[in-house]
């Protein structure tokens, strides 16, 4: 009987040891998970902690992101949309000026949090980046020389013509589709683009209609015009703010604020200020 008691005692102690060890393991895992929960922060957490949002923009795209000729202050439609959005979110905003390709790289490496520069929301970009809801809609037209329309009567005449633009825009995609020869610029000013068309260094610029309309008003003495017969549908869902993919909390806060600004007319007011009375928040009824 004594041997049996000793044996049972040993078994009970072994079971208690195993249960204790399992409990310790579970506590340790739980503690580790708790630590991970505490140390894992989102982009929105980091932005709130800093009290500042870093925004990529070109500073050279009139009238969406440019420097005022009198004050040299950065302004424009997209710039002011972002300023008002940041104000409503209780954040300071710091703009970092760069070319469009640089904006995408800077979002991925964390140099900037978002970018705003008349950026088209496309299926291909949505596969790699996050976007806000759209706050601008437009269509594409072509700036050509006023005196001879750069020798372009129909879209078939675009083949072989020199099209100016940045390499990764939807507008250069359209030029490629019609067989144009690409002339690539790196964050050049509107004036540089337009003068090159006027003097024949390039033949056309395919871009957003509202931007081109403003450009013509700003440079009335140049030998340029919007081609009267060329209009292009763009493969996008409108214009929005771009950010790193899967930053859901940041995206949700931006979307909520942009929607409020659309609902209360703030973005329409900014649109009419920068686009000669046009409301770009409404989809245009255009036949292509």
UniProtKB/TrEMBL annotation:
InterPro entries: SBP_3_CS, Solute-binding_3/MltF_N. Residues 1-23 form the signal peptide. GO terms for cellular component: cell envelope. Its main location: other. It is found in: Cell envelope. Residues 52-278 form the Solute-binding protein family 3/N-terminal domain. Pfam families: SBP_bac_3. Keywords: Lipoprotein, Palmitate, Signal. Gene3D superfamilies: Periplasmic binding protein-like II (3.40.190.10). Belongs to the bacterial solute-binding protein 3 family. This is Transporter substrate-binding domain-containing protein. It comes from Fervidibacillus albus.
């Amino acid at each position: 009987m004594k041997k049996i008691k000793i044996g049972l005692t040993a078994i009970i102690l072994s079971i208690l040891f195993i249960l204790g060890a399992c409990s310790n393991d579970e506590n340790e895992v739980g503690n580790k998970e708790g630590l991970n929960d505490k140390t894992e922060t989102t982009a929105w957490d980091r932005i709130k902690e800093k009290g500042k949002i870093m925004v990529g923009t070109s500073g050279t795209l009139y009238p969406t992101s440019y420097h005022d000729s009198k004050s040299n202050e950065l302004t424009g439609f997209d710039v002011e949309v972002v300023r008002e959005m940041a104000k409503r979110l209780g954040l300071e905003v710091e703009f970092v000026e760069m070319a469009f390709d640089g904006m995408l790289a800077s979002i991925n490496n964390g140099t900037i949090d978002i970018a705003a520069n008349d950026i088209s929301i496309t299926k291909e970009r949505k596969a790699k980046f996050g976007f806000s809801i759209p706050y601008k809609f437009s269509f594409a037209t072509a700036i050509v020389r006023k005196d001879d329309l750069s020798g372009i009567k129909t879209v078939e005449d675009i083949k072989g013509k020199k099209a100016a633009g940045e390499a990764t825009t939807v507008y250069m995609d359209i030029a490629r589709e019609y067989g144009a020869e690409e002339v690539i610029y790196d964050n050049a000013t509107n004036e540089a683009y337009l003068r090159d068309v006027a003097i024949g260094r390039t033949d056309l610029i395919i871009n957003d209609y509202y931007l081109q309309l403003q450009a013509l008003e700003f440079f009335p003495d140049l030998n340029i015009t919007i081609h009267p017969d060329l209009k292009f549908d763009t493969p996008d869902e409108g214009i929005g703010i771009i950010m790193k993919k899967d930053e859901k909390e940041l995206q949700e806060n931006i979307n909520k604020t942009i929607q409020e600004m659309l609902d209360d007319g703030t973005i329409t007011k900014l649109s009419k200020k920068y686009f000669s009375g046009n409301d770009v928040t409404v989809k245009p009824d255009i036949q292509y």
